[in-house]
Design goal:
319 residues, alpha/beta, D-Maltodextrin-Binding Protein, domain 2, 2 domains, two-stranded parallel sheet, 9 strands, 19% strand, binds aspartic acid
Length: 319
């Protein structure tokens, strides 16, 4: 009996190893926890296209929006951990959300296998193009004066846009009307259409429309300007040095996904970041690409733990 059990266990192990070796034999689903067209979706599609070539199987994007990205990530956590379902998380879903959702059904640190960082994404403060303020200072004054008459658009509680604009509001002491969307793709449409007043969002969503003059950019919340938006001043230059914040997007697999599979996905992601075409597309949109050690799964794991800690403290202090 013991022997039979040992034999069965050995067989199961071999089968696991063999399937990891053959992986992938069918398309891989990438859960994007926001609406199509936004930064998380765009980054997933850019790296996904290149990863599909490397892996010889299609990476298929599935947009599962809701609750600031936590609905899609909960679904991803519960998916079969065989490498055929992975997800694109970000600073909100894997950093800020646990402090904002007391009943959240996943732990960003313990429920996932980190695959790798896809891109850092500076935050830019943007408004509809006819917003009556010509610089950040005037914008801040308008916010303070307008209070609840102004509409700030975001991707839901716990999202990057929501969290980073919360910080801005705390610093300015304002309480505008907050309008939740399923992602900042639709937020951008309504900003361009003049239906909402302003937003704080990840740069990759905004560069094209800022360059086209379809929306107005007041400042980028990083210590230095972005090469993708050389004319947009930093918050420090524009007189609000205390407002410095950046976000990121990274790939995760459900806990227990076999290590050789995670390694293959990490390698394909790294190749995507080196691929001339996807690299250029990400850089043109203002993405900050991880290099060297920052590309490893282990680095992402440590980084996520630090982000949960950092955002937990920031959010508690803001209450
Ligand atoms: N940038 C969004 C956020 O605010 C989400 C999205 O990618 O659409 O979290």
């Amino acid at each position: 009996m013991k022997k039979a059990l040992a034999f069965a266990a050995a067989l199961a192990l071999m089968a696991g190893a063999a399937s990891a070796q053959q992986y992938p034999t069918k398309p891989i689903t990438v859960i994007v926890p926001f609406a199509a067209g936004g930064p998380t979706d765009v980054i997933a599609r850019i790296v996904g296209e290149s990863m599909s070539k490397t892996l010889g199987q299609q990476l298929v994007i599935e947009n599962i929006a809701g609750a600031g990205g936590t609905t899609g990530i909960t679904r991803g956590k519960e998916a079969v951990n065989d490498g055929y379902t992975i997800m694109m998380g970000h600073m909100g879903t894997h950093g800020a959300a646990p402090a904002l959702y007391p009943n959240i059904r996943y732990n960003p640190v313990t429920d996932f296998e980190p695959i790798g960082m896809a891109a850092g994404t500076p935050i830019v403060i943007v408004a509809r193009k006819d917003f009556p303020a010509s610089n950040l200072k005037e914008f801040a004054d308008r916010l303070k004066a307008g209070q609840d008459k102004l509409n700030e658009a975001n991707a839901g509680v716990g999202s990057v846009s929501h969290t980073t604009c919360t910080l801005l509001h705390v610093q300015l002491g304002t309480k505008p009307t907050r309008v939740p969307y399923t992602g900042t793709g639709p937020v951008l449409n309504d900003l361009v259409g003049g239906k909402v007043d302003y937003a704080c969002d990840q740069i990759v969503n905004l560069v094209t429309q800022i360059q086209a003059g379809a929306i107005r950019a007041y400042a980028i919340a990083t210590p230095t300007r972005s090469p993708a938006l050389p004319d947009v001043p930093t918050t420090k230059e524009a007189g609000m040095p205390e407002y410095e914040v950046s976000a990121w997007n990274a790939l995760f697999a459900p806990k227990g996904t076999p290590a050789p599979i995670v390694a293959r996905l990490n390698d394909a992601l790294s190749k995507a970041l080196d691929d001339a075409n996807s690299r250029k597309r990400l850089l043109d949109l203002g993405g900050v690409l991880p290099e060297g050690n920052e590309r490893t799964s282990a680095w992402l794991g440590t980084f996520v733990a630090a982000e949960v800690d950092r955002w937990g403290k920031t959010i508690r202090a803001a209450r």
